[in-house]
Amino acid sequence: MSCPSSHGKQDCQVDFALLIVRRLIGLVSVMLGIAVVTFVVTRLVPSDPARQIAGLGASPHAIQQVRVQLGLDKPVLTQFWSYLDGLVHLDFGTSYVTNHSVLSDIGDRLPATLELAFVAVLLYVVISLLLGTLAAASRSRWQQNTIRIATLAGSSIPPYWLALVLQVVFYSFLGWLPPGGRLPIGTLPDARVTGFYLIDSTIALDPATFWNALQCLVLPAASLVLTNVGSLTRLVRVQVLQERSTDYVSVLRARGIGRRRIMSRHVLPNAVNPVVTVAGMQVGFLIGGTIYIEKIFQWPGLGSYTWDAIVAGDYPAVSAVAIVLSGVFVLITLVVDVLQYLLDPRARLARV
C-alpha cells in the first residue's frame, strides 16, 4: 500500500485498520436494523402462515395447532426475543414452506444467485468501460450517437419486460438458448464442490456441462446487465472526457506520446476511481434485481426462494434472506471503500 509522502506508512496502516473496523461495525448495525424492520414488516402483513400451511379446508382447531407449532400463538415480544436469540446463534429458524432449516436452504441456493450476480457484474463492468471509453475517445459522431441512444434505450426498459422479450426471441423464435434453469432438464453436474456450476464443471473437466451452464446464464445475465449498463457507461464517458481535458494530458501530447498510450496508462487509471464507487453501488442493485429475474427464468437461487417465501408468508425465510442480502450489500460497500482507499491517494489524504 503506497502512502502519500506527508503521511507515514504506520499512520496509513492505522487509518486502513480503522476503516475496516468502522465498516464492520456498520455491517453489524445494518444487519440488526434490517432484522428489526423485517420482523415488524412481516408481522404487519395481513397473512396467516398457519392457515396456508394447514390448507384451505382446515378446521379452526387444526389451524390453531399449526399456529402453536410455529410459535405464532406467543406474544409478539416473546417472538421477537426468540428471533434475535436465533440470529445471534446463526439459527434463522425453520422454513414454513420447505420444512427445512432456513440456513440450509440459503446455503443450497446462495451459490446460484452469486454465480448469476458475478457473471452479470463482470459483463456490466466490462461493457460499461468499453462503451464509455469508446464514446469518449471516438471521433465518429455516428458511433457516439449510437452508443448514447443504445444505453438510453436500455435504461428505459424494465428488466422483467426485457427478460420476457429475450425468452421469446432467443428461445421460442430462434431456439438458440434455453428458456431457464441452471442446466437443461435432466442434466446434473458431475460434482458439487463449490455450488458454482462453471467452476465445478471446470474442476471436473466436463466441458459439456460448462457449456450448458454458460448457455443458461446468458439470458438472465443479459436481462440484468442491458437495463443497467447505461448509467455506468455515461459516467465512464464523462470521467474520460474530463481527464482528457486536463493539463497533464496536453503536456503528454506535446511530448509526442501516442493517444493509445496516454489513454491506457494515464487517462483510464485516473478516471476509474469514481467509477469504482458507482459500480459498487450498482452491484447491490443488480443482486437485488435477481428476485424477479430468477422467477422468470426459473433460476433456483435466493431470488425465487424469496418470491415463494413472500407469497407463502414464510416469515423466517423472508427475514433471513433480507439479512443475508443486506450483509452482502454492506460487504460490497466495504470492498469498494478499500479499493477506493488503495487506488486513490486523495482518499487517504482525506483521512489525515
Structural class: mainly alpha
Helix content: over 70%
CATH architecture: Orthogonal Bundle
Q: Could you spell the SSE succession in H and E letters? A: HHHHHHHHHHHHHHHH
Q: What is the C-level CATH assignment?
A: Mainly Alpha
Major beta-sheet overview? none
Q: Please tally the β strands and state the result.
A: 0
* CATH H level, superfamily name: MetI-like
Global geometry: globular
Mean pLDDT across every amino acid position: 77
Domain count:
1
* H/I helix tally: 16
Attribute tags:
mainly alpha, 0% strand, 352 residues, MetI-like fold, globular
Task: Map the helices and strands.
Elements: H1 9-44, H2 49-54, H3 60-70, H4 76-88, H5 102-137, H6 141-156, H7 159-173, H8 197-203, H9 207-226, H10 229-244, H11 247-254, H12 259-288, H13 290-296, H14 302-312, H15 315-343, H16 345-349
Helix pairs in contact: 1-15, 5-6, 5-9, 5-10, 5-12, 6-10, 7-9, 8-9, 10-12, 12-15, 13-14, 14-15
What would a concise description of this structure say?
The chain is mostly helical and 352 residues long. The protein is built from 16 helices and no strands. It has helices spanning 9-44, 49-54, 60-70, 76-88, 102-137, 141-156, 159-173, 197-203, 207-226, 229-244, 247-254, 259-288, 290-296, 302-312, 315-343, 345-349.
